[in-house]
Amino acid sequence: MKFAADASLDSGATFPACAMYDLHCHLLPAIDDGPVNLATALEMARMAVADGITTVACTPHIYPGVYDNDAVGIRSAIARFQIELEARDIELVLVEGADVHLAPNLIDGIRAGRIATLAGSRYLLLEPPHHVAPPRFEESVFELMTQGIVPVITHPERLSWVDSHFDVFTRLAARGAWMQITAGSLTGRFGSRPRNAAERFVGDGMCMILATDAHHPRRRPPLLAEARDAAARIVGDGEATHMVLTRPLGIVKDVPPSSLPPALSFDGDRAQSRDRDATGGLISRFLGRWSRA
């Protein structure tokens, strides 16, 4: 199975050090449980830009029988919304994606092009059930990985069963699955239990990216900077930047996981954060390499 990054991003563009990529966001209007109309979606887009987000993966649910979206429809909705943004001088780049629920024949759907991966890459945003640990969850994730797909498991810290199954996520992370922690979890917007779990994922070096999972400008806002700062207090500035820029940019560019910075635990990043210049140089080299791709 071969994946290719969005060619429109291979333009030689440079990226400011303060830029952030949000790769889980329900921004498209009237397509799932995100914004109900264009005005609300535009309000969210303006909030994202004001927060320092430069690129958003529009990731509506693909949940058979509930939200029957597919890659073709998502790309069409993104194209329409990008036109609306440009008409209003809202400087936000949109790429495709989907919040994909576990379902039978998922691999067949990806192969056939019905299921959208993140920016057309090998990385798939995968949402587990919220309240029940699914049977054969580990096996299902590993099956995706055998097909060259990198599952990015969404908001594990918010699952009601995460505390009793934390070892499952530890094993998955050790085998190469990625974990995406919700920005609002890390800042306490979802309460103390998700916050504690989010801090554990970050502190244990099991959070590869942060994302907003935004749905609404007030109830579920597209704010990422505050979570980056919260992560920095746990693992240092360098690793926090990797969570919102380096690795998300790598996903958009379809860079293999082995070529991206590994997640760092608290002790490992303390040494890195003492040398800010070295960290900045590392990121500059990554950005320069990808911008020339």
CATH topology: TIM Barrel
Give the low-pLDDT segments: 1-17, 267-286, 289-293
Going by CATH, what is the homologous superfamily? Metal-dependent hydrolases
How helix-rich are the residues, as a percent range? 40-55%
- Cα-atom Rg, whole angstroms? 18 Å
**Biggest sheet layout:** 6 strands, parallel
Count of distinct structural domains: 1
Describe the oligomeric state of these chains in a short phrase.
single chain
Strand element count: 9
Q: In terms of structural class, how would the helical and strand content be classed?
A: alpha/beta
Residues in β-strands, percent: 5-15%
| Helix run count | 11
The top level CATH class name: Alpha Beta
Q: Biggest sheet: strands side by side, in what order?
A: 3-5-6-7-8-9
Could you state the order of secondary-structure elements as H and E? EHEEHEEHEHEHEHHEHHHH
Shape: globular
Please state the average pLDDT score.
88
Structure description:
- This protein has a single domain (17-291), classed as TIM Barrel, CATH 3.20.20.140.
- It is built from eleven helices and nine strands.
- The chain has helices at residues 38-51, 71-87, 106-111, 137-146, 166-175, 183-186, 192-203, 225-235, 237-252, 266-273, 276-291, and strands at 20-25, 53-58, 61-62, 93-96, 99-101, 123-127, 150-154, 178-182, 209-211.
- Mean pLDDT is 88; it is low at 1-17, 267-286 and 289-293.
